[in-house]
């Protein structure tokens, strides 16, 4: 599982949780319902993030930092890192790989059921068992620990753990565990809401990347 997959897993638009969750836990659902309500109340969200990964096969660790901009409910988001950017206007997605010197263009598929930035807050409406494992304290923040386990055993993901701030309703961090024993954790900091974004922030402009080759995968 690559870092780019985890990044596209973390960020999303939002919708309310349905009753279709398999074997749901009422306490877990209550926490996620509240997070959904809080998240969808904002016009825009901007935050810094840190992504940390542990790869057992390669016996290696990595850490990356970046920034995310998104508009809840629209499918629009932008993720910025030193050598990588992901931009979506809700219809088209640009995956800019600066180290490879290319920008990959794909269509956003609303019917796609895979975990991606457009469905992080409602991907678990079906196909996941959920449970609240308890609470923990980080500084002055009390966090609820929610575990999601795929019912489809063919998935490479073994489980997902979300820690959600009980006070703000925001995700504090999210950890993805795969079946190879690897773990990837994303932590959100410096959250700002209802900021006005610059025009065109969710569009790709070639003049911003003059040395990039366009690879159209549509």
UniProtKB/TrEMBL annotation:
Residues 1-22 form the signal peptide. InterPro entries: LolA/LolB/LppX, OM_lipoprot_carrier_LolA-like. Pfam families: LolA. Keywords: Lipoprotein, Signal. CDD domains: LolA. The keyword Lipoprotein applies. This is Outer membrane lipoprotein-sorting protein. It comes from Albibacterium bauzanense.
């Amino acid at each position: 599982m690559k870092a780019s997959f985890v990044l596209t897993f973390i960020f999303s638009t939002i919708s309310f949780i349905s009753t279709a969750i398999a074997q749901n836990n009422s306490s877990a659902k209550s926490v996620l319902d509240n997070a959904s309500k809080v998240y969808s109340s904002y016009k825009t969200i901007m935050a810094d993030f840190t992504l940390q990964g542990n790869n057992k096969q390669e016996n290696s660790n990595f850490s990356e930092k970046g920034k995310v901009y998104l508009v809840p409910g629209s499918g629009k988001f932008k993720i910025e890192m030193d050598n990588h950017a992901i931009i979506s206007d809700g219809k088209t997605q640009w995956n800019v790989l600066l180290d490879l010197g290319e920008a990959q263009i794909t269509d956003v598929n609303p019917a796609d059921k895979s975990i991606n930035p457009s469905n992080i807050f409602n991907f678990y409406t079906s196909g996941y068992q959920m449970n609240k494992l308890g609470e923990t304290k980080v500084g002055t923040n009390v966090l609820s620990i929610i575990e999601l386990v795929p019912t489809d055993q063919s998935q490479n993901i073994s489980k997902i753990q979300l820690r959600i701030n009980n006070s703000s309703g925001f995700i504090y961090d999210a950890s993805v565990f795969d079946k190879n024993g690897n773990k990837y954790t994303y932590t959100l900091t410096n959250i700002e809401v209802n900021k006005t974004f610059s025009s065109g922030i969710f569009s790709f402009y070639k003049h911003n990347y003059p040395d990039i080759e366009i690879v159209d995968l549509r």
